[in-house]
Amino acid sequence: MEQPNGVATETDQKNISGQDSDRIPKPDPRPDLEQIQLQDNTAAIDEKQNGESANGLNKSKKSVSWSEELVMESPTPRSMPSDDRGSNPYVAYSPAPSDNSSSFNIKNTMESVKGVLGRWGKKVGEATKKAEDLAGNTWQHLKTGPSLADAALGRIAQGTKVLAEGGYDKIFRQTFETVPEEQLQNSFACYLSTSAGPVMGVLYVSTAKLAFCSDNPLSYKAEDKTEWSYYKVVIPLHQLKAINPSSSRTNPSERYVQTISVDNHEFWFMGFLNYTGAVNCLQEALQARNLV
Fold first, then answer.
1. What is the value of pTM for the model shown?
2. What domains lie within the chain, and their CATH numbers?
3. Distance between CA atoms of residues 54 and 43, nearest Å
């Protein structure tokens, strides 16, 4: 019996399935894995959302309450853990100072810092002023001589002589006649004004006199010969009448000290390396003379 058109017989179906079995693609296992992972991720997201919503509900239910220890004026100090001290060698405790201690007083601390900085600034200012004065006095000292180079070399030679002789006190006693009880108070490098020009030397102030001696010998004529001699000035304190510091009107850096004896002899000293110290020392010597 003939089969209707369009209906495949069992034999035909077998042939078709045999011919096309190789053409049908095999199922890929990866979609199943992706689907499993997607399900896991979806479950995790759901759990997270559920947790957040639960936390939100818990937060909304929280209430604020103050501890009794926090509202007390003087809370009881809590004890330190005792276990850490024995088990951890890097943990140590030291007693804290009381609240009334000066270390906790910020105002006192700031005042102390201000005081220290103020004193330090004052000392720095004084040191700077002294350095400026010394620099200015040194420059003026070197300019006072007829030659800047000769003045510098003269100061170096004088310093070498002082070291070799053992100090100004020994030079003073070797250069001038002294009495046993006489003591050298101070010495100052300077110039003595003379008719021949400024003479570089050292002014000594002792308990008995003012004495000046030139660093180098000066030449003078004796008949037909040229002689050399150190220039010296000695004024006993009981013969000292006045000490007058002054400066040039046209050049204030040029400062002088006028000494006047009781018989009105005047001596002008200039170019001091330590002008302020020299003036103070000379005035003190004059006051000591007046007290005698």
1. 0.51
2. 146-289 (2.30.29.30)
3. 16
